[in-house]
Every structure is written in structure tokens, then in C-alpha cells.
Amino acid sequence: MKIIKTIEELQQIRKEISSSIGFVPTMGALHDGHISLIKQARANNDIVIVSIFVNPTQFLAHEDLDKYPRRDIADQKICQLCKVDYLFMPEINSMYQGDDEVLIKAPKIASYILEGLTRPGHFDGVLQVVLKLFNLVLPTNAYFGKKDAQQLALISQMVKDLFLPINIVECEIVREADGLALSSRNVYLSEDQRQEALKISRSLKKAGKKIGAGEFKVKKLKKKMLEVMDTLDVEYLAIVDRNFNEVEEVQIGNTIILIVARFGNTRLLDNLWV
Ligand code: AMP
Predict the structure, then answer these.
(1) Cα 182 versus chain centre, distance
(2) Shortest-distance atom of ligand 1 to CA 175
(3) pLDDT-derived band of residue 216, with 50, 70 and 90 as boundaries?
(4) What is the mean pLDDT of residues 64-85?
(5) What atom of ligand 1 comes closest to residue 147's alpha carbon?
């Protein structure tokens, strides 16, 4: 595995690749969720490129940019074990060269609901960095987790709206054995908070069971889910279609149940695609 630190080096290497490229963009502190994306990329492409870049433009002023977990050495080891060909780890000042850049605007409606409501402008930063990375890596396939459902939808929309010749691969959510969705932010949780956090996946499981038994009414499902999460600080519980419009009835194959709950300063996000 080769570690690439500069844009010039990446562009030089990219010029010499003519076979398929699977690309996995990440912010590091890699866990089994990231690894599952890398494995899919490895299985379906000749070359695998992973990037680790904690992108400042997607963090709001008060968010955890400085505190965001960084594990460069462990991450390099993981990528090596996963047979990644190239690990791209750029410096901030090579990705952003000034304050007055050409900017990307995420769609007004879809990026200012749910995650975008609490984190206005977050998705502008996500799309900005993903577009930069796409333009550098020029991947055949790019892998994203369904855990960040709204992010995945907005990236897919960007690819469609801007005619990018890249295939977006949607990857299933990876969980701990007890159900907690893996996240780099789980390290912020105390033992008690971690126990409490299990109620998020339990409530999703409950909803899944109810839907399996024929309960499609959103009001009823939400009530049952909130009972499971009664002690949690739930920021939102939304049941939407694949275009992120709130629905009154679940439609199998076209519904996502999204939860964000807060544990102190930590926001945990999880969802179920029905
Ligand atoms: P991040 O490093 O948090 O920016 O995540 C990089 C990629 O990994 C994104 O596409 C995430 O959706 C994906 N990802 C993060 N956690 C999980 C998980 N538990 N299961 C599947 N994919 C995940």
C-alpha cells in the first residue's frame, strides 16, 4: 500500500491507472463500518483508493472538528490489512487553498431538513469535499454507508445533477453485536451513555418488527419507538420516503426511519431502510 500525501502525487499516479477504481472517502478513525465499504471496493475493482481527511468545511463553528478522533497509524495498518492500494491523506491547506473558493451549494430543501436543520451548511461542505475528491480520484465506483442516509442521497443527487461519470454504491449499516451502529463518535460515550444508546437500535428493531407484522401507520410506529427511547434526548425521529418527504404510511421499499439522539455533546445517528 502506498500512502499519498500530496495532490500532485495522486494526480500523477491516477494518470497511470486505466483499470477500474473503487474509492472510499472517510474521515478516519476507521471501524468495521468503514472496513465493510473497503471490502466491497476491494471485491469489485482492480484498484482501491481510500481517503482520510477530516474536512473542516462540513463542521459548524461549535462542532467537534478539533476533538474529532484521529488515529492515523492504526488507520494505515487497517488499510494495509484490507489490501488498499493507495491511501490518500492530504493536508487541509492542499485541499483548500484560499478563503474565496468556488463553492458548491447543496439543494435548498433536501439539505436544510433533518440533519441540515441542526447543521445548516453542513451538506455544502460535504458536497464540496466529495466533489474535490471525486475530481482527484476519478473513481469508477464510490462507496458510501446508508448510515448517513441524507448524505448518501445528496451525493447521489450531485452525481446526477452534475453528470459525474461515477457509480455510487450504497452500503449496509454495520453494527456492534448489541445493535449499536458503528460510528467514529462512539468513543465519546461514557459506559452509561453507551448502554442508553442501545435504545436507538432497539427502537428501530421494534419498528421493523411492527412493520413486519403489518403496522404501516407512522403515528403508531413513532409512538412505539418513542416508548423504547423514553429516557433519551431524541433530536428527531422521522419516517420519510426515499426523497426525504415525511410520510403517513410506511411503504415497503420506499421508506427510511431516521433517528438522531443526543448524549451530552455527542449526536448519534441511526436509521432503518424499510
Ligand atoms: P465517516 O468517516 O464518518 O465520514 O464515514 C465514511 C463512510 O463510512 C461514510 O460513507 C459513512 O456513511 C460510512 N459509515 C460510517 N459508519 C458506518 C456504519 N456503521 N456502517 C456502514 N457505513 C458506515
Answers:
(1) 11
(2) 19
(3) very high
(4) 97
(5) 12
Please report, for the chain, the start and end positions of each structural domain, with discontinuous segments joined by +.
2-171, 184-273
Give distance in angstroms: CA of 145 to centre of ligand 1. 5
Q: Calculate how far, in angstroms, residue 220's C-alpha sits from the geometric centre of ligand 1.
A: 30
Q: Where are the strands (E) in the chain, listed by range?
A: 2-4, 21-26, 47-52, 86-88, 141-145, 167-171, 233-241, 255-263, 266-273
Active site residue 34: yes
Confidence of residue 193 (pLDDT cuts 50, 70, 90): very high
> Is residue 71 scored above 90 in pLDDT?
yes
Q: Give the fold, CATH level 3, of 2-171.
A: Rossmann fold (3.40.50)
The domain 184-273: what is its CATH number?
3.30.1300.10
| Cβ(64) – ligand 1 distance below 6 Å | no
